[in-house]
Write a structure and sequence with these properties.
By secondary structure, the chain is mainly beta. The chain has 2 helices and 41 strands.
Amino acid sequence: MTQVESQIFSRMSVPRFRRCRAFRVIGRTALLILLTAPVSVDRLVAAEEVSEVPGTGETVSHEAPSAWVRAIGGSNREWAVDVAADAVGRSVVLGHFHGITHPGDGLPDLESAGDSDVFVSRWSEAGDALWAHRFGGLGQDEGKAVVIGPTGNIYVTGFFSRTLELANGLTLTSRGSADVFVLALDPAGGLLWAESFGGPAGDVGYGLDVAADGGLYVTGYFQKTMELPGPAPDLTSLGATDGFLVRLSAGGEVTDAWSFGGPGSDEGHAVATGADGEAVICASFQQKIAFQGHGFESAGGNDVAIWRLSTDGKVQQGYTFGGPGADTCEDLAIDAQGTLYAAGSFFGHAELGALSTPGAGGSDAYALAIDRQKGPQWVRALGGAGSDFGFGIEPVGARLAVTGFSQLPREAAGFSGQANGFVVELDGQGEIVDRHTFEGEPAIQALGLALGGDPTSGGGDLFVAGMFRGAADLESAGQTRRLEGVGKFDVFLARLSRR
């Protein structure tokens, strides 16, 4: 971890790998980890079909694309932090890298200009690299979340220090140690617009989603003050850091902004939007937090706050989840009925309203469901004797998919790895009905999840990604494939078979 990253992210005791994010068109997030050679998986996951690519006018005929694994990388470090997928099954991967990396077969290498640079790459439904772009400057620059809009445009948020060099000669300049950036690309990767906001300290964009009207919601956190362009008022923090929620038009104009927080370190982590225009956000907070007068007190080190907002940005409902330890929310999703789902991790035990769930180890991953009218429905702990972390969540037909990773000592793991990734599928009551596993030698972390392809055919296809070091085995639907890393950290992207 670099000095700048340590200054920005050292406050929280949970791992800071994500944006997740968030990918949301049909799906949510999938993470990608970089290796050198593509590894194909033979199991077929889709029937022959002809589809129109949103926003391009292209018609694509694809004959039953196979499940596959792709990797890219160089001799240094690459991280993928979020992925979005569309109805055709094309995906967009977001992350950051150091030094020189090879973003995919047939594409030129990318070289960072400074400490770390942002990369965005697009992949076909068959797993072919279509294009890749680098954004950055001399400082530390990282993407945190990506989403595909209804017209096929791609939206990205994250943070940058010093300057962020973009296409067409456009450069953003930070006001302090780090500022938030938001940018839009067309389906071919062309830059449409870019905006930044921040203040004299470190500010980070952590999650975003596209609303039903084509506008954007962006959440994250800031220190001291945040200067905003347009008519929205500047924001001032109440404590060490406060969370923010900013609404932008489809053209990138900031139209509204809100802050939430208290005397401690508080951060917005994820935002999701529903078909009726509502938005849901989740935050991690210490001590106390309030948003538009709807406040909570922490039961321990860090707790989770969740608020549901109307189309005009007014808080309609609020919930808190947590216990005596460090608890966090990393991803959100809303299904067609308006039920919201969250994933993250908790320590010891945690409560959601009248529901209580005990942990099994140092920390446990979780998934929870909150009905719009009936309130909290269930909480499912996902963990064992070690430390387990949840990072992505996505409704898949009548099921719910959750991704994350587990850390165990070698002697207790039952395998040779120190960290292992997972994707579990839950039924409507939160019970596990299927699982996909990723065993690392020494480590693999599944950090994000996306849904892509035709959602009417068994719920669509799952895309999962993350980072690994050394080697890894991916098992799904009876198929196992081996990955071999080439650098300090590499990135994988897998299209999974579902049973």
